Amino acid sequence: MTTAATLSIRRFDAGDTDAVVALWQEAFPEYRDATKPQRNPHLSIANKLATQPELFFVAVLGERIVGTVMGGYDGHRGWLYSLAVDASLRRHGIGTRLVAHVEKTLTERGCPKLNLQVLSAKADVRAFYEALGYRTDEVISLGKRLGEVAASAA
Ligand SMILES: CC(C)(COP(=O)(O)OP(=O)(O)OC[C@H]1O[C@@H](n2cnc3c(N)ncnc32)[C@H](O)[C@@H]1OP(=O)(O)O)[C@@H](O)C(=O)NCCC(=O)NCCS
User: Would you indicate the residue range of the signal peptide (predicted)?
Assistant: First the structure.
């Protein structure tokens, strides 16, 4: 398989925006859901560019954007978001490479643990993370929307 062998991972650049939005709209159904205006890929990108933009990565095959991942580190825990691989290139190790890239970057910053959330209906994604050594924590996940997003989602 040549795909992962010729793959590179680099920081997101603003010129990647259209390709990343297209990838996310395919990979994340909620980005196509008109009833969820809070899921706005352009806003997600703008917010990340304002907060730890150095932890927003794309996987590139030739000139083509084929994967994305975002990391975050708040000084206590690391988080991983927006992992997506082009549907035509899945099961070639690209997702594994992207997660490993975030793990390495956060380890170098001294981050002791990386957390992530998976929608409970996504058994395949859970299998992916378990294959990479992630295990279910005995916690429940709580969340609350803030600001304008709270009003639009209500
Ligand atoms: C999850 C995702 C990023 C995985 O990317 P990928 O490049 O296909 O993953 P890899 O090829 O590195 O898979 C590594 C291992 O994970 C497991 N795995 C991956 N996809 C799997 C699936 N659909 N079902 C079961 N196990 C899976 C396998 O053990 C696989 O190894 P194998 O192919 O040798 O059997 C990709 O499926 C995706 O983009 N999904 C849609 C977006 C999404 O839901 N992202 C997660 C948000 S939390």
Answer: none
Q: CA-to-CA distance for 122 and 144, rounded, in angstroms?
A: 22
**Which of the listed residues 125, 130, 132 should we mutate to test ligand 1's pocket, taking the one with most ligand atoms within 8 A of CB?**
125
**pLDDT, position 150:** 76
Of 19, 21, 18, 47, the residue nearest 32 (C-alpha): 21
Domain around 126: 7-153
Residue 56 gets the label, from left (phi > 0), alpha (psi -120 to 50) or beta, of beta
User: Is residue 19 one of the residues assigned to a domain?
Assistant: yes
DSSP H helices in 12-121: 17-27, 41-50, 94-108
Q: What CATH code is carried by the domain that includes residue 101?
A: 3.40.630.30
Q: How many domains is the chain built from?
A: 1
Expressed in angstroms and rounded, the spacing between residue 90 Cα and the centre of ligand 1 is 7
Q: Is the CB of 20 under 6 A from ligand 1?
A: no
* pLDDT tens per residue, range 70-102: 999 999 999 999 999 999 999 999 999 999 999
Burial class (CB in 10 A: 0-12, 13-18, 19+), 136: exposed
